[in-house]
Design a protein that fits this description.
There is one protein chain. The protein is of the alpha+beta class. Helix content is about 40%, strand content about 20%. The strands form two sheets. Strands 1-2-3 form a three-stranded antiparallel β-sheet.
Length: about 230
């Protein structure tokens, strides 16, 4: 859209009119329509010494104001991103095959989120597969992109992890039981590795005890070990 000054040459003299040009995005055609009728130059000279130059300047101001309004216009609301991540479907198939949902929820009987405990564990596993992140990043960025997933706030994630952590050995035993039903253990050969993590604290506390560190540091550490059977199943 823009404005311009149209000058008609008639028998009586020059006739002025301000028109606006409009663009139709569907037809991709521009059309003009009357914005303001000014009249004959001869009549306008009683008020303006040079009517044509005066209204050319006026049209210029209209177009400048139009440009400013365009810049100030509130951007159109962006369309919601409906892209979803399905990169966890193979693991989801294995999770469903283990048929562990009811037993996991049974461990949470009486807990505030007992009905979604299995869904939470499942979702957090998928988060670590798709994009290992912090609890906040999982809540704000990763979980919303997982197809078919329920949403968990950062506070919910911390509370549920704390609940599970109090009896984490039960969950390990539960998964081992279901895995062993489908894939019996092969103990003909086993694979083992371990590592440790140090904490910048002065005194040992709970499971953070002093011991041999691969970095030769003196702070309390936590050791982590991984044992695989002959089929490389943890």
């Amino acid at each position: 859209m823009s404005y311009f000054l149209r000058i008609f040459n008639r028998k009586r003299g020059s006739y002025l009119q301000i028109c606006e040009t409009l663009y139709n995005p569907k037809t991709k055609v521009c059309s003009n329509k009357n914005y303001k009728t000014l009249g004959y130059v001869e009549d306008l000279e009683t008020k303006y010494p040079n009517p044509i130059e005066h209204f050319k300047e006026y049209v210029k101001e209209l177009n400048e104001k139009l440009a400013i309004d365009r810049e100030r216009k509130i951007p159109e609301e962006e369309e919601e991103d409906v892209t979803k991540n399905i990169g966890y479907f193979l693991v989801k198939s294995l999770f469903n095959t283990l048929d562990v949902k009811d037993d996991l929820n049974a461990l949470g009987v009486g807990y505030k989120y007992e009905k979604t405990l299995s869904k939470f564990i499942e979702t957090m596993i998928y988060c670590q597969i798709i994009q290992p992140s912090s609890k906040l990043a999982n809540s704000e960025n990763v979980i919303p992109q997982i197809y078919g997933s329920e949403h968990f706030s950062e506070d919910q994630i911390y509370r549920m992890i704390n609940f599970i952590g109090n009896d984490y050995q039960k969950y390990i035993e539960l998964f081992n039981y279901h895995v062993n039903k489908l894939f019996p253990r092969n103990y003909k050969s086993v694979f083992f590795d371990c590592t440790n993590y140090y904490f910048e604290i002065d005194l040992p506390k709970d499971d953070k005890q002093k011991g041999p560190s691969k970095e030769n540091r003196k702070e309390p550490i936590i050791g982590q070990a991984l044992l695989l059977d002959g089929n490389q199943i943890p």
